[in-house]
Write a structure and sequence with these properties.
Elements: H1 2-13, H2 24-32, E1 39-42, H3 51-55, H4 62-73, E2 79-83, H5 86-91, H6 93-109, E3 113-119, H7 151-154, H8 164-173, E4 180-186, H9 199-214, E5 221-222, H10 231-238, E6 242-245, H11 250-260, E7 267-271, H12 282-291, E8 295-298, H13 343-352, E9 359-360, E10 366-367, H14 378-387, E11 393-395, E12 401-404
Parallel strand pairs: 1-2, 1-8, 2-3, 3-4, 4-5, 6-7, 7-8
Antiparallel strand pairs: 9-10, 11-12
């Protein structure tokens, strides 16, 4: 009874009219104000196998989250895309939002923002529960991922309203919070990895947009567009900015970006990076994102219990990477000690993010700008840049990068 009274207070405390969907002009004003460039990764702490393990009070690890956020700051990241879960909220709304605030404080400390994701129901056979989570299967990507909402609620549109307080309360609490970049209301609605579509997802998708907008957020709403599905018009008619997932090579990446440009709104690629045969790398895809002026968020951060370094085919029968791991990581960027999986990737990301890596002072001293505030000797800067995956560069007195030396 206490929770339902709490929920009623939330609903009645909201303004009676929702804000309008942004015009393209409003969306571009917001996008152009995001300085520096929108670039980052998905964040699930390495000690968590899914969102429940990340957000439940019993397993929430604020220190480790802060530490792993700091790794991204060294590459110049400005955003982390972070999945939430309704089950944790409904158990303890106040505690859940407090933990969200803890994460936002860490992000702010390192000059980053959050792009929060509410729902993700790709797998129709999954009904996660609170409490201790199953042990991940060895060498299997996302073996205990916690889809949301529960299929019992999703499949019955008459029960969708149960989720309304969750959306309105969370968005309303952080509606004016500059630490939040945007709200991804529904991840890949309608995608199940098979030909079986669930029309109830489209019904919920429309409702979630309406609920989130009723909380009058100052941040944009979005949902990654699903081409050739009934979800597409719902997404494009309700999104303030266009988001899209592109796991392809260069040619197909460009084609999809040009398709998204027809909506005349800013674009954020909220998932990319699939090393190996798919050929989605930082080296070939990230420069295109910069070229087309779209935000870029890679999938994976620190290798851990989610095992995103394992490819999608790790789920296929007859495929086992236990004894013979793949020759390259499929996703993820950092080892747990903070060392990049590939230093050359780290250097590419830093340069494309405009990180100043060093400067040349009037007295001919060098420094690795990301490591020191005062000039150091050439030997010191070489050591500093090596530990920070940087190249020594000269920067003039206006702190403008010159060519790498």
């Amino acid at each position: 009874m206490t929770f339902y009274l709490y929920a009623l207070l939330i609903l009645f405390s909201q303004q009676l009219s929702a804000r309008d969907i942004w015009t393209p002009e409003q969306a571009w004003t917001w996008f152009n104000a995001q300085k520096p460039y929108i670039m980052g990764t998905e964040l699930t702490v390495s000690s968590a196998a899914n969102q429940l393990e990340m957000w439940q009070a019993e397993t929430f690890d604020a220190d480790l989250i802060d530490k792993e956020i700091s790794y991204g700051s060294k590459l110049g990241f400005t955003v982390f895309r972070i999945f939430l879960h309704d089950l944790v909220y409904f158990k303890d709304p106040t505690g859940f939002k407090s933990r969200m605030n803890t994460v936002l404080n860490s992000l702010e400390k390192y000059g980053m923002k959050a792009l929060f994701v509410f729902f993700d129901s790709e797998n129709p056979d999954t009904n996660p529960t609170l409490g201790q989570q199953p042990k991940p299967l060895p060498a299997k990507c996302d073996s205990v991922y916690a889809y949301t909402p529960n299929m019992t609620i999703l499949n019955d549109p008459s029960k969708h309203e149960i989720l309304k307080p969750y959306i309105i309360d969370v968005v309303g609490t952080f509606a004016n919070d500059s630490r939040v970049l945007a709200w991804d209301v529904y991840n890949e609605p309608g995608f199940s990895g098979s030909d079986n579509r669930n029309p109830a997802q489209d019904i919920l998708l429309q409702l979630v947009f309406e609920w989130a907008r009723s909380a009058n957020p100052t941040q944009p709403l979005t949902s990654p567009v699903m081409f050739n599905t009934p979800a597409l018009p719902i997404q494009t008619n309700n999104s303030d900015v266009i988001s899209v997932h592109i796991y392809t090579d260069v040619a197909k990446f460009e084609k999809l970006i040009k398709t998204c440009q027809q909506y005349q709104r800013p674009i954020i690629v909220t998932e990319f990076l699939a090393r190996g045969p798919i050929s989605s790398y930082f080296s070939n895809i990230l420069p295109l994102g910069k070229q087309y002026n779209v935000g870029m968020i890679a999938w994976g951060h620190v290798v851990g219990k989610t095992e995103w370094n394992m490819p999608w085919d790790s789920w296929n029968k007859g495929v086992s990477y236990v004894e013979y791991p793949p020759t390259v990581w499929f996703q993820d960027i950092f080892r747990q000690d903070g060392e990049p999986y590939l230093r050359e990737e780290a250097q590419i990301v830093k340069r494309l993010n405009g990180c100043p890596l060093g400067y040349h002072s009037k007295v001919n001293n060098w420094t690795c700008y990301n490591a020191y505030d005062t000039p150091k000797s050439w030997a010191d800067v070489q050591a500093a840049c090596q530990s920070d995956w940087s190249y020594p560069v000269t920067i003039n007195n206006a702190f403008e990068n010159s060519d790498v030396k």
